[in-house]
Design brief:
Structural class: alpha+beta
CATH topology of the largest domain: Alpha-Beta Plaits
Radius of gyration: 22 Å
Shape: flat
Number of helices: 7
CATH class of the largest domain: Alpha Beta
Strand order of the largest sheet: 1-2-3-5-4
Largest sheet: 5 strands, mixed, barrel
CATH superfamily of the largest domain: EIF_2_alpha
Number of domains: 3
Helix content: 40-55%
Amino acid sequence: MEIEPGDILICNVEKIVGTTVFVEIVGTKMPGTIILSEIAAGRIRNLRDYVVPKKTIICKVLRIMNDHIELSLRRVKEKEQKEVLEKNKLEKSYINILKSILKEKTSEIVEKIKEKAPLQEFLNLSKENPKELEKLIGKEDSKKVIDILKKQKEKVFYLKKEIKLTSTNPEGINLIKKILSNRKGVEVKYIAAGRYSLISEGENLKKTDQKIKEFIEEIEKECKKENMEMIVA
């Protein structure tokens, strides 16, 4: 599992030493720490109001050190927390599907799959092209897994960003329409007073998020060319 600054991760609180919280990061062997100022905004009277041993929390990666990862609890937005929990819930459902067929071999196979790609992505691709899955678990078991997957309703992620575009150009409205039109993969909806919502959807959370980021970057470039101002909410 590759971890980068800014990633949102599921962690289990192991212990509290003084004002430092030590956690186990789910999916990696590297430990994590959270200092007091990264637990919550403002003054903290009792650290255990926020974290206690064995509690599961959602954290953001600040820095990757040689022997541990520095994390933040307070910088995780409610939306980010919800998305990570949804993704984790979905992954567990995929693991349960494999477990129903592979039994005690499941953990070993899941690890091998994750070396190639995220579990959800790998299994979704296997529905169309099962060759890689067949190499890992054989044709018969692969068919059983895919049959179950095809009967399940696919989980779709919806991500939404809001932007505001302003222009002093008399033709500003037409320029905005031009900039926002003919762009694939992201739905644009007018809200009011120069505000627009950008909606991206897909079966892979990271790719869906990347799609909307790239869309915003394209708009920023166009805004600079036309001397317009853009604010991302």
